[in-house]
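worker-03 picked up job from queue 'complexes'. Input manifest follows; two sequence lines, order preserved.
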Amino acid sequence: MAAENWELFRFIQKSNLKTAFLSKGDAFVNILMMLINNFSFIFMWWVIFNDKGTINGWNFDDMALMFAVSGLSFALYAIFFRGVAELPQYIENGTLDSYIVSPRNLLFMASTSFSTFANWGDVITALTMYFLSGYVSAGGFILFLYLSFMAFLLTYAMRLILSTFAFYTSGTESLGNNILMTFLIFSNQPATIFTGIYKVIFLTVIPAGFVSLFPVALLKSFTWTEFAVFTLGTGGIFLLSLFFFYRGLRRYASGNRFGIR
Amino acid sequence: MAIKSRFRKYGAFISLAARQAITNKTVLCGGIFLLLILLLTYNQLWTVIGKDSADPSINATFLWYLLFGELIILSAPKVERILEQDIKSGTLAYYLNKPVSFFMMRFCENLSLMSINFVSLGLAGTLTAWLLTPQTPFTWLQFPLIVSLVYLSSLINLLLYTAVGFSSLWLEHTKTLAMAVQRLAFIFGGAIFPLSIYPEWFVDIARWTPFYSLYYLTIKLSYDFSAADVSRALGLNCLWLAFIIGFIIWAYRTMQKRVNVYGG
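worker-03 finished. Artifact:
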């Protein structure tokens, strides 16, 4: 079953790449725009750190690590599983019907139904920032890949939880996008600015700390305790999102839409 | 009479779009929620920086600055996506033979959405910023003029994204171009961090972009208000407005010709 899904996943990704390269010039312009987008944001923070030195103990190298992890995790979500953000639309207009009748896993099919090629620019940015961070080592690189993957699971889980609101009420797509945007805003700030009640929110209600605070701390100095908290925290939220989705799915009433996929 | 009926026609588009925007409360609330999160986050950032640099007033100065910058950014509807869809799907061909200008119709709809967003975000943002930092860096007498200039910048910003939307005549996807334009506004316009903290060579480059007057010169008035700066911001913004409108007219005419060639 897993092998079949993997084959299907590879096939979908190949198709996505072929579609993106139908117009090579446009594909490269998209990546270039994403690079401009990312590096201009990074430049802005470089200017701030150049002026202030450190912000509550964080320096620009820490920010570089944070950009690396958050960039790669978001790229994995946007390139491979962005369809999860389309779920509210599928639920509201009944498109979900055609995924339900598919012999493949419903959530897998819906999640891989949409992809944005431009986010390959995020992969380039993330790797560049990791190698510029000053914390580079072979073991560190493997850890960076693992942390980015877990941060991706968290981003996916957050979006899935927000998408499941659509099972209960209508017009939630934009609200979900805004809450995810909040998550991304939180995860792209120096983690040390969040103190007191903000830190509680940062690690619980909008758990962006698992994308910025923990990965940077682990890449700087690894401890098994932090590693366990990070893994259990992200894994737990991912499982919770699956629970919410399948619970919400029970409420789904077919839109009687006829379609073949 | 003809002019009056034309205004009535486009007035109807404005009123219809406004009613739709007010009805769609989740979208309005989502935008307000995002603005509040930004204000709270950057309030934390500037408070921490203020403590580190022993300058507590920095928070009030830059929080209000951020509010005006975000008002321009967040009040803009996704006009480029609508135009891209219209152009790609050929929908615009259906509108070209109607007794309304396709451009004016879309512009009026989005101007209406922008104004509703501007008012709702402005009210919520002003209240939040005032609660977070009651000592404003401007006097309340200057406030109406600053808000008017920020509204003008929002209007030019809307036209800028309209121009991005028309670029889908040449580009397959305009989403990433729109994102890049937004990021360029952040850095060249200093929409988050004011240009005063950037190196001089960078500010010299920024001066040649529309973002400099659209954002920085306008929103800087919140902490550095003078008649000279007001006229400078107004003058440069009018110049860029003329340039952007010129591009839109050219792109719109090109688009009409292409639709004629391909038949929609």
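worker-03 released lock.
Chain B has one domain: 2-262.
Chain B touches chain A at residues 24, 26-27, 29-31, 33-34, 37-38, 40-41, 44-45, 48-49, 52-53, 171-173, 175-177, 179-180, 182-184, 186-187, 192-193, 197-199, 202 (CB under 8 Å).
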